[in-house]
Amino acid sequence: METILKVRNVSKSFGGVEANKEVSLEIKSGDIVGLIGPNGSGKSTLFNMICGIQPIDKGEVIFEGKEISKYNVSEIARFGLLRTFQETKIYSKMTCLENMQISYKTPQDTLMSFFSKISQNVIKKSEELLDFVGLYEKRKLKAGDLSFGQQKLLELAMSLINGPKMLILDEPTAGINPTLINGIIDRLKKANEEFNITLFIIEHNMQVIMGLAKKIYCMNHGKILAQGTPEEIKNNKNVINAYLGAV
Amino acid sequence: MKKDLVILLIILLIGITSPFLFPNFVVNLSVVWLFILFSLTWDVQGGQMGYNSFGNIVFYGLGMYTCALVQVGLFFSIGEWTEAGGEKTFLHTIPQYFTGLGVGLIFSSIIPVLSAIIVGLGLLRVRGQYFAIGTLGLGIAAGEIASGIEVIGGGQGMTVPIWPRAAGTTDLRNLVFYYLSFASFLGTFLFLRWIYQTRFGLTLNAIRDDEDKAEAMGIPTMRYKIIGWCISAFFLGISGALMGNMNGYIDPIDGAFTGSTVGLWMIIMALLGGKGTLWGPIIGAVLFYFFKEFFWMQFLGWQYVALGLLVVVVVVFFPEGLMGWLKRKFPEKFGEVVDKERTSGIHLD
Questions:
Q1: DSSP annotation of A196
Q2: Closest in A74, A93, A142 to B215, CB measured
Q3: Could you please report the per-residue DSSP string of B308-345?
Q4: Total domains present in chain A
Q5: pLDDT in tens, B75-96
Q6: Are residues A197 and A164 in contact, defined by beta-carbon separation less than 8 angstroms?
Q7: Is A77 at the interface with chain B, CB within 8 A?
Q8: Domain coverage including residue B242
């Protein structure tokens, strides 16, 4: 498998706090990779830098062979690297269907295409994806009226509409009831298997990430502490001390 | 489609017949159309995009000055015109007047658009209260700058070419400006109605709801924020040009860059009717104009107090405006329904 994302010696400081120190990792195309670590270990900062939300101080982020750290968020999204957030980010005053439609990027995303009406094709695709995440019946509801878990599902559907190459998800199951967690895991697996989307996931729920990921990185104090299969991570002494032991 | 056509016909009917039904109120009716335009264009930022601008008045003022300067400058020396202060009479012939007005109207839309691009590149980078305060400063600064430019009359302002007597009576002049005002409202209304149904309209709403998300989804938000401001600037510039001509005189602070009156009113009108909707700003502007005239007639001297109280009542009891309140009370009337007819299944290609 080809490497889709390479992070090389990335560092980031906020004043005197070093959030990321020489972080390096590699993700193969089509994989599901987890990122774990105690609160404040620098996971979200790393995600923010990969997606262009925060500029990196040092190092390189290479996506599909292209150095992307100098691009802004929307340009990186257009390369096919999308992220979701810890708190759900949806367009709350718009309907679920509108949330989907505005997330759709036309093949030629020109200025004129933005002044065109939403095509039937996009509406159909939006409805199919809402159906995929189980929100078809709520498609005309305002997204802000959905429950937190449903908003997470909507956000996932929005991310899928353009067929991204890679999705990075920041705690996709946080704050969600166990029944809905299974639904989200199921959709993530399907997105990975059926649409061949590489997933890179921050997750605090060990059961979820151990069952989902093929490879896991563990961060602590802004550094990569360990990497390996879920089994290896589970039995790694440093990880247990730094993270699992702290829970 | 049929509903759209009926609405358009009703508006056309009201617009065309009003001056004949209320011949004594032609100027007032012209102002009502322009008020609706102010409210509609402010709502592009404040309502649809979520950027509360106190600076849209700048485009109105720029349009007012640009048109007058073109009208004068095409046929006379601007310096002599403003220096004359009424001592020397400059009269436009009929062709000069209408050519000047036509070219002036074109430039009064172009210059504000260019300024929206330049200012927007800087100001639209900030959000929330920072944007609001920035635009407030913009409006104040524009008035002060105009007051300091001698060639356009400085603090004394400048007169606008007068209607040539040979072209007809004052009533005809009022009628001409009435229909120009109505046409500019109609153009604004139809254009906004159209773009709100396109991806552009959805993009503005996405920026309003969560700009970070929109960027993360690949939408170049800056581009669309600037275009949104340009649209407002375009129509506001034309409205300023018409208002300047109807008033016959431009004062830099109390006529063109009137942030404390017109600049504020355009916001109140949208809030009153319900921001973020197409019809809210229209209803709000009509209601506001009615209240304004009523307060001016009944409470002269206290009219601003009464107007202030109205604003407080609206903000406290109807924070979403009339349309917002109606939408909340009767959501099903506005198409907010849940459909439960389809079963689950995955159909992706």
A1: -
A2: A74
A3: HHHHHHHHHH-TTHHHHHHHHH-GGGGT------PPP-
A4: 1
A5: 989 988 888 765 677 889 999 9
A6: yes
A7: yes
A8: 53-177+211-258
